[in-house]
């Protein structure tokens, strides 16, 4: 047995063990080859030591996410089968009948709806409750451990009123501190829908100086240029002084500073 | 009544009876989570990536060939998910840092591992995360997932002999990285 074959045999032993004859062949080689012997001792011990590296158990979020996915899939299938069942009739006479019935139904329903002011008040109240619930869900999702959930929180925030200060603050915090760059980018995109808010402008300007992802740096520079935000000049100059800036970011940064001058 | 095998369940899912995926989730989500935890060093990232594997199983269920083995197919999906994850991370990883991670390790490290302390375990974990992704994958499949070499070969699309050599090289690289990170000298 040569050294290459011995190495393959060592590898085989780690995972499956060796039968008697193969083990003796390997031992014979190791007895005669000091270099392979040393290597075998060291790597065998390392293989054993790897057992001590701990593994964490998955959290409840994983199961919840899986169940959510299956539910969404089933709903999608159910919706498409309902769509198939209520497919529009093909005969013109039937089409006319269905259209007339729909019109009559709509008129009656509309009349009933407008006549009941009490119902309108209830609907308005439901709207407020819905808004509050969206607000809470968004804030809660943004605090989750899973990056996927935080991303869902950011997308949820986009369906909310632009003036929800608490959500805006949470998005600014996500832009500043979130460990996942995709969440930071999504939070930035969500914030850019409110360029008029002073806290948003401040959050974005602050982010220019400390974001390390080239993708985000370029997005922030472009935002400052497109919004003609002269207040971003100082942070941009600070960023320019960073020695390890990505070359593509440096080029974009110089163009931006030139455009302000 | 005998329990249905993974292959039978996945064949059903592939045919449109997706409820079988719940049983496959029960059987495999821990193993997948462990796979990604070792590869990425982050439990929360592992959760996201495990979730993504089940999503892709559902989305691409028709690509499962009945009669084919479920476990290699699942790990092929998991490897693709990990590859996409690494590609995204490379975009944001500073170039200098990335170069540091891929520097070759000491080619001839010899180390007495018998007295592993907690600090050594932490260093070993760091060293593991600095291995190139392909070496991490083959080691996780062999050491932590305990897949037989012929199954690893099916997952990686190569011969079992090649897997054995790759495992050996990865172990040697890991040993070198550990020595470098712990600042120990070869004995």
Structure overview:
Chain A has helices spanning 3-16, 20-32, 34-49, 60-85, 92-115, 117-142, 147-157, 165-177, 181-191, 198-210, 214-226, 233-240, 247-260. By secondary structure, chain A is mostly helical. Chain A is flat. With 187 residues, chain B is mostly helical. Chain B is built from 9 helices and no strands. Chain B has helices spanning 6-14, 20-40, 43-59, 70-92, 95-101, 118-129, 133-144, 149-156, 160-182. Chains A and B meet through helix 1, helix 3 and helix 4 of A and helix 2, helix 3, helix 4, helix 6 and helix 7 of B.
Which labels suit this protein?
heterodimer, A: 261 residues, mainly alpha, 77% helix, 0% strand, B: 187 residues, Rna Polymerase Sigma Factor, Chain: A, Arc Repressor Mutant, subunit A, 2 domains, 9 helices
- Amino-to-carboxy terminus distance of chain B: 58 Å
Number of strands of chain A: 0
Overall pLDDT confidence of chain A: 81
- The level 1 CATH classification of the largest domain in chain B is Mainly Alpha
- Say which CATH homologous superfamily of the largest domain in chain B is assigned: RNA polymerase sigma factor, region 2, helix turn helix motif
- Outline type of chain A: flat
Number of contiguous helices of chain A: 13
In short:
The complex is a heterodimer of chains A (261) and B (187). In chain A, 77% of the residues lie in helices and 0% in strands.
Secondary structure elements and their pairing?
The complex is a heterodimer of chains A (261) and B (187).
Chain A (H helix, E strand, L loop, with lengths): L2 H14 L3 H13 L1 H16 L10 H26 L6 H24 L1 H26 L4 H11 L7 H13 L3 H11 L6 H13 L3 H13 L6 H8 L6 H14 L1
Helix pairs in contact in A: 1-2, 1-3, 2-3, 6-7, 6-8, 7-9, 8-9, 8-10, 9-11, 10-11, 10-12, 11-13, 12-13
Chain B lengths: L5 H9 L5 H21 L2 H17 L10 H23 L2 H7 L16 H12 L3 H12 L4 H8 L3 H23 L5
Helix pairs in contact in B: 1-2, 2-3, 2-7, 3-4, 4-8, 6-9, 7-9, 8-9
